[in-house]
Design goal:
The protein is about 45% helix and about 10% strand. The chain is of the alpha+beta class. It has a six-stranded mixed β-sheet. A three-stranded mixed β-sheet has the order 1-3-2, covered by helices on one side. Strands 4-5 form a two-stranded antiparallel sheet. Strand 2 and strand 3 form a beta hairpin. Helix 5 packs across helix 7 and helix 15 packs across helix 16. This is ImmA/IrrE family metallo-endopeptidase.
Length: about 450
């Protein structure tokens, strides 16, 4: 275990509980001078002290984990890269994140709001310049805020996961019966077609749940389980939403939907049984999909949530992209991050999946900071719900750190120890420092800033 220097986090916890250094030192059975040195980052937090802090202050010792650091450091680099005169080193950003994550997140949030305001101003300017033909201005991103909340919790919500495991029969018929018997809800089929297809519609007054007649049995079960979550755990979901301090009512609504969908995934793929099956087949996604009667994407999504304390699965990253490169899902149970500002990398195997539908592709990829990962990718599609209705096609990518890759069946036959096997990829051209990339589309903002600094 690496040494943990996060004294400011400990100091903040102490001050929130209105404890003096002497009082907390006595509770931890250490000297006040020792605690003072820890809070000033002159001594590391040892494992034994971390455990005592958790017990004494009633907090999860994982709040001192560096899990979220990589993503937050990358977000800060993005934020400062857009300031022409900002002079910050990677070491300074890491120190800020490790000691004052709240301040770091506030900086990222401020930069995000500034960028959104700048984009709105540019859109309004264009509206006047082109004869007032009308340009729609995109609303703030709800998904990003909800996604950040889930990633901060390592995509694991214990309150919902434990409750979901109590539902023994997760078949569509059993869930429909549970809705009827416990909540008086009748499930009806609705005929929908076209791009405006809704997954479910609930009438709380008449207690009617409408599900499209075009979705599969597995999708029906998922939607019923999600509605069950809202009906059986409203207090739990609401307390989670309120504790997260989201910025708007729309984001809170999005969080409720995300949490109900999380519950549905946990019902369909119960934690212990699913994790044991995953370990037994070396995380063979297609085998797991067949065993549990769900799709490829559902298995990948669930694998990114298997981080129960004391009984964790393989820490993975899960991404879903479309052909245009838009990332519609991004969850990480490990320290991996793709830039928000720089886009994604065309050398990443996820884009190759569109050319080879139905095949599981593999890639050992190395980031500019030297971190290396094993990625797998496959295209998934859903057919049209009516004549001439457009279908949907995505590429699903699942990855893990190279040190954990041997646990996956997809590592068979790969020389994981050979650095020449890895494909160099990046966070996206605008924030990637590689100068020898054959696929570079834009000059690097970071390299431009470095060049300007040398000239001045």
């Amino acid at each position: 275990m690496s040494k943990v220097f996060m004294g400011v986090r400990l100091q903040r916890l102490r001050e929130e509980r209105k404890l003096t250094q002497a009082a907390l030192a006595k509770m931890l059975d250490i000297s006040p001078s020792y605690l003072n040195q820890i809070e000033r980052n002159q001594r590391p937090l040892t494992v034994s002290i971390l455990l005592r802090v958790g017990a004494v202050l009633g907090v999860d010792p994982q709040i001192f984990s560096e899990h979220d650091s990589a993503g937050l450091v990358a977000d800060l680099r993005d934020a400062f890269s857009e300031l022409p005169d900002a002079d910050t080193s990677l070491a300074e950003l890491k120190t800020l994140v490790e000691n004052m994550p709240g301040v770091a997140r506030a900086v990222v949030q401020l930069q995000s709001r500034y960028r959104m305001a700048a984009e709105r101003a540019a859109a309004l300017e264009s509206q006047f310049d082109d004869g007032n033909r009308g340009i729609s201005v995109a609303p703030p991103s709800i998904d990003e805020e909800v996604r950040d909340y889930l990633n901060q919790r390592q995509n694991y919500i214990d309150e919902l996961d434990q409750a979901a495991e109590l539902i023994v029969d997760a078949s569509a018929a059993a869930l429909q019966q549970r809705l009827a018997e416990r909540h008086g809800v009748t499930v009806l089929a609705s005929h929908q077609s076209g791009p405006s297809l809704e997954r479910r519609r609930y009438d709380a007054v008449q207690k009617l749940l409408w599900l499209p007649d075009t979705i599969s049995e597995s999708q029906r079960a998922f939607q019923m389980a999600a509605q069950l979550g809202l009906l059986e755990l409203p207090g739990v979901i609401e307390s989670l939403v309120q504790a997260a301090s989201f910025s708007s009512d729309a984001t809170r609504d999005g969080a409720r939907l995300a949490l109900s969908n999380y519950f549905a995934g946990a019902v369909r793929l119960p934690y212990r049984r699913f994790l044991q099956a995953a370990e037994a087949c070396a995380y063979d996604i297609e085998l797991l999909a067949g065993q549990f009667g769900v799709g490829f994407e559902a298995v990948c999504h669930r694998l990114s949530t298997m981080q129960r304390p004391g009984f964790a699965g393989l820490p993975v990253f899960f991404v879903r992209v479309d052909r245009a490169g838009n990332i519609s899902k991004r969850q990480s149970a490990a320290a991996f991050h793709f830039s928000r500002a720089g886009g994604t990398c065309p050398l990443w195997v996820v884009y190759e999946a569109f050319s080879l539908p139905g095949q599981v592709l593999r890639q050992v990829a190395r980031m500019p900071d030297g971190s290396t990962h094993l990625w797998i990718a496959r295209q998934v599609s859903s057919g049209p719900a009516g004549f001439m209705a457009p279908g949907k096609s995505f590429a699903i990518a699942l990855g893990c750190d190279i040190s954990q890759a041997h646990r996956m069946v997809y590592a068979k036959g790969l020389d994981l120890a050979n650095p020449d096997v890895a494909t160099p990829i990046g966070n996206g051209c605008k924030v990637c420092e590689r100068n020898d990339c054959p696929q570079r589309a834009f000059p690097s903002i970071l390299r431009q800033k470095a060049a300007i600094s040398r000239l001045t």
